[in-house]
Amino acid sequence: METLKKINLINGEFNSFEAREILLDMCNKNINFNKIQNFSSQIRYGEDDEKALCRIDQLRESVAHISEILEEAKAHNKKLKIKSFIEIEYED
Predict the structure, then answer these.
(1) CA separation for the pair 41, 43 (Å, rounded)
(2) pTM here?
(3) Phi-psi domain of 46 (left: phi exceeds 0; alpha: psi -120 through 50; beta: other)
């Protein structure tokens, strides 16, 4: 599928505290979104949203990896260069 738009969401150099705030906040908001999706499925259909639950697990793994990187950067007093892009496409 053709990408409609590629958006540069994050592009900069951050200390470990700033990076933690940016990255973990983004992950936690996405986790909460998927929790709401699952809750909605439970209320409407009486069953879990397996796609949302799988995504929550993936995001929690990402949080763990990000936390490791942030701790290492903090321990070595290193800044982090972070670039993040979002690609948007139509879905059939």
Answers:
(1) 5
(2) 0.88
(3) left
Where does residue 7 rank: exposed (0-12), middle (13-18), buried (19+ CB within 10 A)? exposed
Q: Is the dihedral of CA 75, 76, 81, 86 positive or negative?
A: negative
pLDDT reported for residue 2: 75
Helix, strand, coil % (nearest 5) of the chain? 60, 25, 15
The predicted-structure confidence for 19-39, as pLDDT tens digits, reads as follows 999 999 999 999 999 999 999
pLDDT digits (tens, 9 = 90+) for 46-92: 999 999 999 999 999 999 999 999 999 999 999 999 999 999 998 87
